[in-house]
Protein: Xanthine phosphoribosyltransferase
Amino acid sequence: MRELQEKIRQEGIVLPNNVLKVDSFINHQMDPKLMKKIGEEFAKRFENEGITKILTIESSGIAPAIMTALEFDVPVVFARKRKPLTASDHLYCSSVYSYTKQETNEITVSKDYLLQSDTVLIIDDFLANGQAALGLIDLARQAGAKVAGVGIVIEKSFQEGADLITAKGFRLESLARIESLENGEVSFKTEECV
Ligand code: 5GP
Structure:
């Protein structure tokens, strides 16, 4: 998605350990017009898939997820990163290791909001090692829901997540695919160069 790539080029900051900081339009301040276009693009790519629900993880997945859900006119469910204080067995639960934060989170979704009858589109802001997306896929699997695919705003293609997800047979659509962050420079996969 050309506009997203331009924004990354203009405002993205490459941090050590292959982390891309996009706080000015995704992870802290947000750009609603760009988010709206992101939602429209996901809706175009996954149209005719019979999506009944968007599934994401708090907190940075929520903005692109809700914009996508608006286009499909379906609800958004976000997995929580902390178990509610009131212990409940009415939850689907999966473990997600975060490479950037070097910690494991138990992610949960209430059984009320993911149903066997659902066809789920998983949305997240970044795809790196794929653990967040695989955790969300696992929650959908526990519910018996169908996963129509995974939509990612920024894929770091040089990390293993994209291969892991496609090798498991899931459709993956990423709006910007980064080939390298070497030497502090963002390089996109060649077919998308602007
Ligand atoms: P994964 O589970 O695929 O390794 O990582 C996905 C999560 O880690 C995303 O939801 C995102 O919050 C965070 N993340 C991974 N890499 C980056 C990065 O380079 N920049 C930012 N801002 N977040 C990242």
Remarks:
- The mean pLDDT is 95.
